[in-house]
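Curious: explain these tokens?
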Amino acid sequence: NADFAYLGKEKRKGTIRYRLKESTYSGLPLVLNSQINIRNDKQTFTAEATLGSAEIDLTKGVYNSETNLTSAFYTLQTKDLGELEPLLGYRYKGPFAATGEIHYDGQLKIRGLSKTFGGMVDFLYKKEMLYVDLEAASLKYIMNIFPYPLMLDAETTGTINFDFNKSLLLVDTNLTDAKFLHTDLVDTIYQKSQVNVLHEVFDDSSLTLKYQNDLLLGDLKLANDTGAFSLTNTKINTAKNTINAYFAFDMQEQEF
């Protein structure tokens, strides 16, 4: 549906309303309602879309045909990020909600804020890189969106970066209220020391790691008032389920 007050080669003024009821995008069912207001070289737009289980709203959209610049504010909510793999280029997991801005000038840039993970997550996607700043967010919920092994939960402040071209994950964080999740590492510690680290909570901790090609390299340092645990120069092969690390352990009257 188009309605123009005038439509010339240099001057244009009008409104286009566009609706898709039964369509697909990258194999996902798509429903779209949009309105585009045209004034010469400048277009403003709004849109509401449902793509799979994701609900996407665009507001205050602007497109300048002379400069080929596009920007808009967005809100996104989905029950399962995994459904959006054809759109995102990577199979994340779990629910997600965010608000932010989109810019396109030949390259896509997406900035946003999310409280999906308990605390505040500030993220930026540009040039095939994802930069994430964390403030008191749940480490378990954040790492669960990546198909990587989970070892800990904690209130997390720091950074996570992901290089899409290299499938490279970098984590540099400080942790409070850190707790082990049940893994083979927990069982190994119990077998060697009779200490169940699942009962421990660590309030002064840090985690740095690099993960690529099934290989995790990093340092984990956990401490509380009564003990400490650390894995340094850690090398974990998730495909072979092997771990090599310098191991230090002092808790529940056991020391290694």
